[in-house]
Amino acid sequence: CKRQKMPLKQRSNSSERRILLMATKDLTYVKKELPGKILNIGIALLAIGLIVGAFGLLLDPTRAKFSYLLGFFYLLTIGMGALFLISLEYVVNADWSTPIRRIPEFISASVPLFIVVAIPLFFFIHDLYHWSHTDAVATDALLKIKEPYLNITFFVIRVVATFVIWSLYYFFIVRNSRKQDETKDQKLTKKNIIASAIFIPVFAITITFSAIDWMMSLEPHWFSTIYGVYVFSGTMLAGLAATTLAVVLLKENGYLHPRMTNDHLSSLGGLLFGFVNFWAYIAFSQFLLIWYANLPEETFWFIDRWEGMWGAITLTLIVVHFLVPYALLLPAPAKKDPKRLKFAAVWLLVAHLLDLYWLIMPQYHGEKSGLHYILTEFGFPIAAIGVLIIVFYFNFKKHNAVPVGDPKLDRGLNFKL
């Protein structure tokens, strides 16, 4: 019998399907260089921040030292939030996040810099922390009880040990990830999974110590058993927001794998929405438990934040950090809308800075007031943003933005909701 020819239109459709099938299996990634203006923006922000911070030191040295702590912890929380996101991906064996894992790797490259950035704070201890004064401890029964923990020597040991642990994990996990680009060795993934499983409980302990040491001990008479979880929720949200912003911008401009779709963005949007709710839940839980118990040694901390301008800032924080991002990210289509995700990510990074400002700055009781004094308080946080951009730029320039050797990359690129 004669062989029937396929109609021209059907042959055309079949050819298109074969091309599409080949495209979906293509793991080819062509690296593109970031424009130099990104580096210039980072340098400009760093310079502006340092100049404003130095001006603040001239106007009000003590206020500027609190501002430096604010900038330092802003840098720390974004970097550690990104590092925790990497460890979470390995432990849960996620596929969808594999194509974008290098982005939090680049952001968390700031982690080894923490010890350098923290050096000035060691010289500011007496200006920042009441418990560091031996005469104050000698006349305060509560500080005397806390002295075995709250003393300068043990404080420095804890800080250095924490930064070393974080840096060692960062170097180990990132080295294996980048080495896999060349060797394609799947055993490196298994090593990172094991290291991440060990790191997550260590991270929980160390981020709690850091929150207590750097911020909670600004008021050493206050008690809260949920404070570490509260700071963790903000840390994770900040790392997620920075990662989301970078991923959307890079995807829009063709710097990531061409097979990435908005379904990958939807997972980031879902995580952002989840941690917005988690932050609000922990924040309200802390307030509710302290309000219900009505113990003077706990309530005074919140009372200080309801007096004067701090009452307005407290209400603003509720709106900015919860209600607005909740409404932005609630609809399902919003979670994969690039424009809305960019706006939500920037909004949450600003909200996180406001949250840290609310945690730290009320402990400064200066007599000087005025808009120019308040503006100087944000000099060092601006410098921290500049540091993050510079670190990101050089890491992006030196390494692949896509983990081309990861065995999960193809599954991650095929991710569909």
What's the gist of this structure?
This protein has 417 residues and is an all-alpha fold. 74% of the residues lie in helices and 0% in strands.
Walkthrough of the structure:
The protein has 417 residues and is an all-alpha fold. Helices cover 74% and strands 0% of the residues. The protein contains 18 helices and no strands. It has helices spanning 8-25, 36-59, 61-92, 102-107, 114-123, 125-128, 134-138, 141-146, 152-183, 187-214, 227-252, 262-293, 296-304, 309-329, 338-360, 371-376, 379-398, 409-413. α3 runs antiparallel to α10 (187-214). The chain is globular.
- Through-space gap between termini: 47 Å
Number of E-type strands:
0
Question: Strand content of the residues, in percent?
Answer: under 5%
**Overall pLDDT score:** 91
The helix-strand sequence is HHHHHHHHHHHHHHHHHH
Structural class: mainly alpha
The biggest sheet, with number of strands, parallel, antiparallel or mixed sense and barrel status, is: none
Poorly predicted runs are: 1-24
Query: What's the tally of helices?
Result: 18
| Overall radius of gyration | 24 Å
The 3D shape can be described as: globular
The share of residues in helices is over 70%
Give the secondary structure arrangement, pairings included:
Elements: H1 8-25, H2 36-59, H3 61-92, H4 102-107, H5 114-123, H6 125-128, H7 134-138, H8 141-146, H9 152-183, H10 187-214, H11 227-252, H12 262-293, H13 296-304, H14 309-329, H15 338-360, H16 371-376, H17 379-398, H18 409-413
Helix pairs in contact: 2-3, 2-17, 3-5, 3-10, 3-11, 3-15, 3-17, 9-10, 10-11, 11-12, 11-15, 12-14, 14-15
